[in-house]
Design a protein that fits this description.
By secondary structure, the protein is α/β, with parallel strands linked by helices. The chain is built from 7 helices and 7 strands; from the N terminus they run E-H-E-E-H-E-H-E-H-E-H-E-H-H. The protein has helices at 17-28, 59-68, 93-120, 140-158, 189-202, 211-219, 224-227; strands spanning 8-11, 33-38, 49-53, 74-77, 125-129, 165-170, 206-208. Strands 3-2-1-4-5-6-7 form a 7-stranded parallel sheet, sandwiched between helices. It is globular. The relative contact order is 0.14.
Amino acid sequence: MTSLNNAVVLVTGANGGLGRAFVAEALLRGAAKVYASARTPREWTDPRVVPLALDINDPASVAAAAEAAADTTVLVNNAGISDGGRPTLTTPLDDVRAVFETNVFAQLGVTQAFAPVLARNGGGAIINMHSALSWFAMGTYSATKAAFWSFSNALRVELLGQGTHLLGAHLGYTDTPMTERLDVPKEDPRDIVAAILDGLEAGEPEVLADDTSRRVKAALSGPLTDLYPQLQTA
């Protein structure tokens, strides 16, 4: 189990809706310090929050962040980008690769850079932000989330030897800047983050943070037509 009390937390993508919620909730749970990282860090009023420049796509920036935040005990891999819902068949391959670079390879790069940091600090924990779309295909974005989920399952086992706990978090549509153009019901990011950190503190390997993620994962054990009813008439 990982307590947030007196923890030193680093949140990637801290300027976004979920990122801001992670910063606020970590502080509520007693974090001693929160590195709020982003390509262009914002100002924070709480002295426990340390703005940190971090471009997860830039290996030099990642290495510099790992050196600057060498006291980190909890890493939250929250940064990511959307593909805009573009059809897979007509999306240029370079654009597909760009989403994979950020949502998969950059996440792995940050994890590789901070794993030794966490090991030196007693093990700690990593939270990887996935999605209900890890299990429901809707184009490039969901494909990146599926790949990142698979990486997390492998990393979770590899990290056991150094005492680092990895939690994979899945969620449906949440009210953040990434989803602001979508006219769909959305979860409150504060509720999602609270559920994720509850799971972290309970030692869970995976958190399904809302009804959407729980429903989609449950459907994986059934026929494909449960997830894709349009196939029944294909």
